[in-house]
Amino acid sequence: MRNPFLACAAVVLTAAALAACGSSADGNDPEAAGAQRPAASGPAVPGPSATPATEPATPRTEEPTAPGASAPAATAEGPKTPIDEITPATGTFTKKQKEYLKDRVPKGMDPAAVLQTGQETCDKLRYLVKADRDTAVGAIVTGEIPDAKDAVAGLCTQHQALVDEAAYAYPDGKHSGKKLRPGVYRSASPTTGCSWQIAGAGGKELASGASDTGKSRKITIPDSAVTFTSTGCYAWLPEGAAG
Prior knowledge:
Layout: H1 15-20, H2 95-101, H3 111-131, H4 133-141, H5 148-154, H6 160-166, E1 170-176, E2 183-188, E3 194-199, E4 205-211, E5 218-221, E6 227-238
Antiparallel strand pairs: 1-6, 2-5, 2-6, 3-4, 3-6
């Protein structure tokens, strides 16, 4: 079944675009997962909800990020605020939240804004997993979700398997040398212009192929491979990983 997000998620998937496509911000249509990927930017982060008095309040910025905009980068350069000085304007941070914020809050920046960046990353992963798991892993591999490793480790550990799988996958591009790992791989959300080539010593072609179907394909990288080049295939995930 074709992915209904394709018509409205070409660059940035906002709440308005999701509404226009007849879907929810949580991606509650897992049957709609198709061969091509939805935008890795994910839905706009939901607004704050009421928090029980017995639980720590979820810190938010005093001026929430507008839908479709990005929160301040958590990896900004410059002096960082010591962990014992990191406190929200209201409520409290949980232990995991403080661990995530350690060495990530630039001096003078609202720590809640930095935390929001990580929370948005978790929201994107949750959305993509519901739409298509391979796309979620691919978004980590290609760097479309650059903060995934740290955000998952500190804020949404339920997605750790995605990060672990991404560590053994390949994005489009040319790969060679010790970075090549023999094995069977499947393409994640390839385009209709997907092509690949595997070469050995002296540039001798060992295998190559192309696909214009937009459907996942499998390849085998042999022990004798020296280079592996991929174009339009998005990412190649190790076969046998949870899917």
